[in-house]
Amino acid sequence: MHDRTHDRTHDRPHDTTRGRTVVVTGGTRGVGAGIARAFADTGARVVACARRPPEQPLEGVEFAPLDLRDVPAVHAFFGALPRLDVLVNNAGGTPYRRLADADAERHARVIELNLITPLTASLAAYERLRRSRGSVVMVGSVSGGRPSPGSAAYGAAKAGLAQLAASMAVEWAPQVRVNTLVVGMVRTELSHLHYGGPDGIAAVSGTVPLGRLAAPADVGAAAVFLASDAAAYISGASLHVHGGGERPAFLDATTVNREK
């Protein structure tokens, strides 16, 4: 028999993020902008924080200048918010950089951006999230679960981010839910830096089972789901948003059982 006294979905009467306050770090372009737009479309108050404003203002999204590496500034930013329901730790990224082509300090800066700043933001936001029984969505990467030549420090940071989220989900339960989006290849305004021009993007898209790169809106929809009441019993989880992953290389190399 289902004991409805333990059904947390009754803590919140609406199964959307309408009326809630959402902060998206790095929410001014690419994946972050897609996430910010997705939450704004639900009726949430969305604040995108980054070092620089977006080139084009995002409709329904407020901008707040913030350097996430400045710990006092991060605490001041979250401390000034009257309410916070959802924190999306999206800020991150890396250039293509092979390990031996840079010193450890430069790789450490990649790890700081992709692992330490989400921890900084989460700790600064914790008290407000606890009061609202809110949630944290970490934006991870498939690079954290497979070899990532050319972005090894980034992959290491994203692996650590998933572990951080899983531990945070246990420590902060039941007041705050914490989940990770494990994101695959996304087509953004910077795709050419990673995949080349249209021919390169088309070729890379062909390696994805669903036949295309993700759009920022795909990641946004998944983030909205994890923050919504539809995911009220999901915490400490990793949701893969990667179009089915990557086709194993051996399938194209084998001389038997090949698809026509």
Structure, described:
The protein has 260 residues and is an alpha/beta fold. It has helices spanning 30-41, 71-79, 104-132, 152-171, 191-195, 198-205, 216-227, 250-253; strands spanning 21-25, 45-50, 61-65, 86-89, 135-141, 177-183, 238-241. The protein is globular and about 60 Å long. It is built from 8 helices and 7 strands. A 7-stranded parallel sheet has the order 3-2-1-4-5-6-7, with helices on both faces. Helix 3 links the parallel strand 4 (86-89) and strand 5 (135-141).
From the helix content, strand content and strand pairing, which structural class follows? alpha/beta
The best one-word shape is: globular
End-to-end CA span: 52 Å
List the uncertain runs: 1-15
Largest sheet: spatial strand order:
3-2-1-4-5-6-7
Helix content: 25-40%
Helix segment tally: 8
Average pLDDT taken over every residue: 92
Strand tally: 7
Q: Give me the strand/helix succession.
A: EHEEHEHEHEHHHEH
Biggest beta-sheet profile: 7 strands, parallel
Strand % is: 5-15%
Radius of gyration: 19 Å
